[in-house]
Amino acid sequence: MRQQVRTAPAALPAAMRTPLAMTAALATAVLVALGILHFHDSGLTGIDAALLPSIDGVQPPWRYAALVIDFGGEPVGSTVLVALLAVVCFLVHRLRAAVLTVLGVVVTVAVTTVLKPIVGRKIHGEFLSYPSGHTALATALALVIGLLLVDRLGLGRVAGVVLVLGLALVAGIVMGWAEVALGAHYPTDAVGGFCAALAAVPATGWVVDRSADRL
Fold this sequence. Notes:
The chain has helices at 14-37, 46-55, 62-71, 75-91, 95-119, 133-153, 157-181, 187-214, and strands at residues 122-123, 127-128. Helix 4 runs antiparallel to helix 5 and helix 7 crosses helix 8. By secondary structure, the protein is mainly α.
């Protein structure tokens, strides 16, 4: 039997596979649980009732900051960010990471897009809100950046998990705050978007590596 030899650095470093698989499973459970909790229900309960009044409708200069952050999740802004990260991956000879940058974002956004009409939660009476696609996208990009850094720096499992999940958490909180502050989402929508990325990106990375190894 011919031994399979990897010819390019993995999109999902070996040390990160198990911890991110466990994280993805937990994130999927939270994503589904929140979707069931808010199924066709736009009422404020729990976290939403506690946080929304203090965040929604922020005034300048914080509103300007929220608008700038929000632009990163809009079609033009997100396309620029994804392209820049993919080019960086290509320049440092991490082709699988470049593929993961694009596919990870596409899969993550697809998950949020499919779930919105299924869950049917609305904000302002007409806009489907759960889960937050902007928050999911920001988290997905942060996860890819974290995985790239883990590979480049040769970090072990513990340091790698702290770095990857730390970057994802910061990105999720920042974009989630902007979306809630601008009145586009409830806080739990942001949590759902964060979990969607945690579930989708590691799975996509695994598929990218398996496919590339077979080729």
